[in-house]
Q: What sequence folds into this?
C-alpha cells in the first residue's frame, strides 16, 4: 500500500502518479488535497502520509508540493520517516539504495509529469542496498531518539 498526498502546488503531479499507480495495479491511499483551486497548507498532507508510513499502514509514500521541499521538511519530523526530495533519476535511485527512503517528495513546479512517473517508478522498484548503509540508518534513528554518541 502506498500513501500519497499533495498540496495545491503538487496536485497535478499527484494526479499523474495516481494514474501511473492505477496502470500498474498498485494500491494506494490518497490523503488529499483534492483540487488545485484552493490554496492549502502542505504540513497537513505531509503529516497524514508520514503517519501512515510510520505506523506501518503503508510501506512507502509519495508527497508532492510546489518544490517537494516543504512536504519533505514536515514529513521528516515524524519518527521513522526518511523523506527524500528528488528531481533526477540518480537521486531517486540513491534515495532507495543508500538511504532507504520511505517517502519520495516531488515538486510540481520543478519537474514535469513524465519525470514524476519515472522517479516514482525508480523509487518504488529499487531495493535498499543494506550493509554499511544500514549502519548509517541506525545512526539516524539514534539521532531521532536522542541517544546518538559522537
Ligand atoms: C505553496 O505555494 C508552496 O509553498 C508549497 O507548495 C511548497 O512548494 C512548499 O515547499
A:
Amino acid at each position: 500500500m502506498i500513501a500519497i498526498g499533495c498540496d495545491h502546488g503538487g496536485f497535478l503531479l499527484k494526479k499523474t502518479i495516481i494514474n501511473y499507480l492505477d496502470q500498474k495495479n498498485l494500491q494506494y491511499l490518497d490523503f488529499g488535497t483534492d483540487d488545485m483551486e484552493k490554496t492549502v497548507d502542505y504540513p497537513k498532507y505531509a503529516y497524514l502520509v508520514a503517519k501512515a508510513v510510520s505506523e506501518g499502514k503503508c510501506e512507502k509514500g509519495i508527497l508532492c508540493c510546489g518544490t517537494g521541499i516543504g512536504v519533505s521538511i514536515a514529513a521528516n519530523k515524524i519518527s521513522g520517516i526518511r523523506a527524500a526530495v528528488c528531481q533526477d533519476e540518480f537521486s531517486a535511485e540513491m534515495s532507495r539504495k543508500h538511504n532507504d527512503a520511505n517517502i519520495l517528495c516531488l515538486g510540481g513546479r520543478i519537474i514535469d509529469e513524465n519525470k514524476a512517473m519515472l522517479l516514482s517508478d525508480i523509487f518504488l522498484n529499487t531495493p535498499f542496498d543494506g550493509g554499511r548503509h544500514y549502519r548509517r540508518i541506525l545512526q539516524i534513528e539514534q539521532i531521532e531518539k536522542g541517544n546518538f554518541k559522537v
